[in-house]
Design a protein that fits this description.
- It is a single chain.
- The protein has 19 helices and 13 strands.
- It is about 45% helix and about 10% strand.
- The strands form 3 sheets. Strands 8-7-6-9-10-11 form a 6-stranded parallel beta sheet, sandwiched between helices. It has a 5-stranded parallel beta sheet with strand order 2-1-3-4-5, with helices on both faces. It has a two-stranded parallel ribbon with strand order 12-13.
- It is of the alpha/beta class.
Amino acid sequence: MKIFSYIKEKCPWISYAFGLIPFIVACIGYGYYGKLPVWETVYASVALYFVNPVVDFENSLIVFAEITAVIVTAGIILSVVRYAYAKVDHFFTRLSGDATVVYTDNDFGQELGQNLSHGYTIFNNPDDDRDNLKKFKVEKVKNHILMFENDMDNVSFYTENEKKLAGSNVFMMLRDIDPSLLDTADKGASCLHFFNIYDVMARDYWRKYNLYEKRKDRIKIAIIGFGRVGTAIFKYGYLNNIYGLDQEIEYHIWGCSTSAAEFVGSLNTMNKDKIVIHEESWEEGIDCLAQMTRVIYTLQNHSIELVQKVLYVNPDAEIHCYCENPAGLAQLYISNKIVAFGDMTDILTEDNIKKEKLYRQGKLFNYDYHLRYSGENAGDDFEEKAESEWKKLNGFFKSSNIARADHYWIEKRLVSDGELEENSEDAWKIEHIRWSRFYFANHWTYDPKRDNLMRKHPLLVPYEELSYEEKSKDGVYSEVIRAEIDKLTL
């Protein structure tokens, strides 16, 4: 069946060719053997599609044409019924308040579309002309997810349909374009969010396999491979694995390019954490892997070879292997610390992409900053004002607030476990480290004079060098906003 689907996908005209077979065979039967005139032959052959033979003459060719014509007609009727059913189903789906449509040309988008609770997918064949994007009809729903393979297709679709998307949420996938470099303040009426499937995967990974229970130990993390997956895993580990002021986490990285190694190796952790770049291959660094708490293998190939070699030298290590389609890797070995992660079925979910709670927390954190700087208090209309302030931000500052929300569960957990007092100076120190790391990861550096264009900031200094006024800004200003943020914290 797969071969037929593949042929149909590559040669869409083949369905029409098969549909003409009964007509051609009937023409031969009626015209050549039945000796009917040309137009009577054509009329009699077409009539077979309507299950209405108009000539009594029969032979084996005509019988074959009659049977296949019925099959073709039934197929057309079924296609029309399926099309009508889909249209009716889409109509009722759009009536839902949280209806979502995925516009896509790839398997990832179709995978997400199958997981929607109230929504559907509009698929565009990637082999078609890009101008076909202009033929897409923007559906009348609250949420739109743009997941075309090419980043510029997503951007083009949004800009060409910005007015039609007014009043809705738009979630745009970007693989290669860094949204923090875009001037994406929402000047329109839609609410625009960006996501990267590898960032989504990395966020999901560190939530599931966080280091909270080991936070008081000296932890060594090996990351092997520094492509899209490895980069995302390191980035979100660096941003979110901040559990205390005395922690010691070492990140050992294999497989960096020269430019990536220079940048990542120079990142300031603002605490006792370390980043170590290894130039040799991981096979040559097997003695170092023997000292690791966790080994994260982000390459698709040779994972079994890695698992076995690490088990020989470090049987107590956690071994996590990236695999888009896990196939029971953990069940192959006696170790209970082997994990296969990266299953897109689990990652590409509506909750992971839309992240409504996370985005709302980010908006609330941003509004809290606004209240602090303006000296205002949160009124009854704070939701509307928070949305208005959010729309003024470009991609970088939106991401900054979302990163704050992404780490907040750790702060709340430390408070609930009695290790941290809310809005205390220790809490401010942890937040300053997190905030600084976000800026460092996005290529900001220290300078006495702030320059957003050149990514310079005077507060990228150790916490102790800040004034009390600046230190206190790392806390939450409004108790009203804090209460709303805490309601959303898992």
